[in-house]
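Appendix C: a fully annotated inverse folding record. The material below is reproduced so that readers can follow the format used throughout the book. The structure is listed first as tokens, followed by the designed sequence.
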């Protein structure tokens, strides 16, 4: 059971990459708070399925299929979301990808494409919502970074660079928009057992070592374990917290 934050009711929460994995858990959690949720994701099938399931459960969300690396389409989708649900109160930038690359074999196009997805779309969404937040003198922006900023795992140099960039962006942006009572924070997930991770990357040996050796807490990290931190950072319960990155990693970074 998630703690209920009364101030999140009717708040417009816009989530990029909110169709599945960590994003799907975040979307479901905010829908359960009776927030007015808009999900932007390129995975139309998963997004449509999630929206239908939440509608059936009595917690409807809006879903717009869009590739967040396409600047003009992303902005058009955000404009549509504002027309339908009002100004954005909480922006959650979550869309991202973590491909493995031998850096000596990685192309410039691959490097720049990952930065466009993992960093540049965060810039575009922030630029789009901050003016209205300034007018209303309130808002919460939550970025998704990664435990890899602390662990620096092999074959993830580009991914780690993108997520480290987000941590730096949070620090400067929080200072820039703080005078308007706009808070900027980040969540750094550990190795989360999403369907994609389990299908493509996680072995049984990885699971064993996570709970027995690598993490401080002997439990696999699930998407649902991340959602409460996003709720907290969006709510008035964290009204004096800004410029922070919160690790939700079962102690992986400190093990």
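Designed amino acids, in order:
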């Amino acid at each position: 059971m998630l703690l209920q934050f009364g101030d999140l009711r009717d708040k417009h929460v816009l989530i990029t990459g909110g169709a599945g994995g960590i994003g799907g858990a975040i979307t479901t959690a905010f829908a359960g708070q009776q927030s007015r949720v808009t999900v932007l994701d390129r995975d139309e099938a998963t997004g449509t399925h999630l929206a239908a399931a939440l509608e059936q459960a009595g917690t409807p969300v809006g879903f717009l299929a869009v590739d967040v690396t396409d600047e003009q389409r992303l902005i058009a989708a955000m404009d549509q979301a504002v027309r339908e649900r009002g100004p954005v109160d909480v922006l959650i930038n979550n869309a991202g990808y973590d491909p493995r690359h031998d850096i000596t074999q990685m192309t410039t196009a691959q490097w720049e494409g990952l930065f466009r997805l993992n960093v540049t779309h965060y810039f575009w969404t922030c630029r789009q919502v901050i003016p209205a937040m300034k007018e209303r003198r309130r808002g919460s922006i939550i970025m998704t970074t990664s435990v890899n900023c602390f662990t620096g795992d092999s074959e993830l140099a580009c991914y780690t660079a993108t997520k480290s960039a987000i941590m730096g962006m949070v620090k400067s942006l929080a200072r820039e928009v703080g005078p308007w009572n706009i808070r900027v924070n980040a969540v750094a997930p550990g190795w989360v057992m999403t369907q994609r991770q389990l299908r493509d990357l996680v072995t049984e040996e990885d699971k064993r070592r996570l709970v027995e050796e690598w993490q401080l807490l002997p439990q696999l990290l699930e998407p649902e374990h991340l959602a409460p931190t996003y709720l907290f950072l969006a709510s008035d319960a964290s009204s004096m917290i800004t410029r922070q990155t919160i690790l939700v990693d079962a102690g992986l970074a400190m093990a």
